Amino acid sequence: MTINYPNGKIYRSPIKEITKVKKTASASHAKRGMKLEDQLSESNAYYLQKGIAVIHKKPTPIQVVKVDYPKRSAAVIKEAYYRHSSTTDFNGIYRGKYIDFEAKETQNKLSFPLKNFHEHQITHMKQCYEMGGITFVIIRFSTLNRVFLLESQHLSLYWEKQHSTDQRKSIPLTYIEEHGYEIEYGFRPALDYLKALDTIIGNENK
Amino acid sequence: MTINYPNGKIYRSPIKEITKVKKTASASHAKRGMKLEDQLSESNAYYLQKGIAVIHKKPTPIQVVKVDYPKRSAAVIKEAYYRHSSTTDFNGIYRGKYIDFEAKETQNKLSFPLKNFHEHQITHMKQCYEMGGITFVIIRFSTLNRVFLLESQHLSLYWEKQHSTDQRKSIPLTYIEEHGYEIEYGFRPALDYLKALDTIIGNENK
User: Fold this and answer.
1) What 3-state DSSP class applies to A204?
2) Distant-in-sequence, close-in-space partners of A72: CB < 8 Å, separation ≥ 6
3) Which of A160, B98, B144, B176 might form a disulfide with B180, Cβ 3.0–4.6 angstroms?
4) How far is A129 from chain B (nearest CA, A)?
């Protein structure tokens, strides 16, 4: 729905953006019913407000083809297309460390399908990791309502193996339970994923 | 111009994006004639390829209002608007440090107008700086063909002063010459701005 100001100008919300993420079944607990991306955006807003971390979601890359410049009002994009990003969706800084991650959900119950990721995301996380950044994925099993943080090295391992003879195309939940960090739902922030980073940074500094 | 594939699908370039930056007078030296943003993107591609740093420009935030989903082809955005970003344009990682900056040009010869920046960009850089990030602006005096890197603390200083009694609305070139780092044009990378960061990081570690 388009909302207009009384002067006829279009109201543009500074926060919401149309995304292609499918809606997941709403859960009894309001926060659990939110989309993973919204849960993370809310958590990031909390971290920012409290001076804990500065982490933002990058805008969706859009290829603009045609723009109208009407007199006395804002430029209107008349034709454009969604593009694939060459990086991940989220990055920022926490405890002086560069943070970079991607967030994805699945309705599967036993494993996380690798097809949720793109080659360039894996490459990007690897590049950042080699530079000393903290890189990971936040994955949500929406049917189980369980969320995990898994360092990108583990994802890379499965990513590279998928083209070999055994051809496993997903990461088993049991592996994620063992090598990842489960993130509990809370009120504020909705998903306190930085807690897991404290452990990771702590281990690095040992 | 729109280019179509033989199958009628529209060709979308993975790199170029329509930007609102005005073209500057072209200089004799090809690299100098490029827009600042392109010079930086080229430099970042070089740094990435050589494994020196991972720094990307964020996509322009666009508010999508109307999307068509034609059968058997990509979604077409039919109405959208440019939005203001809540962060800066560039961020990434270099030597394990979080890097965050904004790039701007002016045709002025004696000072850099503060109106080139937005309040939220100043706030964002301050937040990142307080977290331990390296935050700065890369400013180009296009008429003089001189480019400087200036740490965001200096910009903040002038930004806050502009509303006081003396009301200076720009940073004098002489101040930038004294407190910033001049970046020389090169072939590859076009603008080797990480050199200045080596000095900054070096001073931090002292």
Assistant:
1) helix
2) none
3) B176
4) 9
Confidence of residue B71 (pLDDT cuts 50, 70, 90): confident
What does the H/E/C string look like for A80-113?
EEECCCCCCCEEEEECCEEEEEEEEEECCCCEEE
Under 8 Å between Cβ of A67 and A77: yes
B87 labeled binding residue: yes
The type of residue at B100 is D
Q: Domain coordinates of chain B in residue numbers?
A: 30-60+86-205
Residue with tokens 């370039």: B13
| Domain A30-60+86-204 top-level CATH class | alpha beta
> Quick check: A77 and B62 CB within 8 A?
yes
Among B93, B101, B123, B134, most A C-beta atoms within 10 A, so best to mutate, is: B93
CATH number for the segment(s) B30-60+86-205: 3.40.1350.10
pLDDT tens digits, A57-101? 999 999 999 999 988 888 999 999 999 888 999 999 999 999 999
- Whole-angstrom distance, CA of residue A131 vs CA of residue A126: 9
Q: What's the Cα-to-Cα distance from B5 to each of B8, B17, B18, rounded to whole Å?
A: 5, 19, 20
Q: Is A160 annotated as a binding residue?
A: no
Which residue from A12, A56, A60 is facing B59, i.e. has the nearest CB? Answer: A60
Q: DSSP letters along B34-55, please?
A: S-HHHHHHHHHHHHHHTTSEEE
Chain A / chain B CB contacts < 8 angstroms: 141
Q: Is A87 annotated as a binding residue?
A: yes
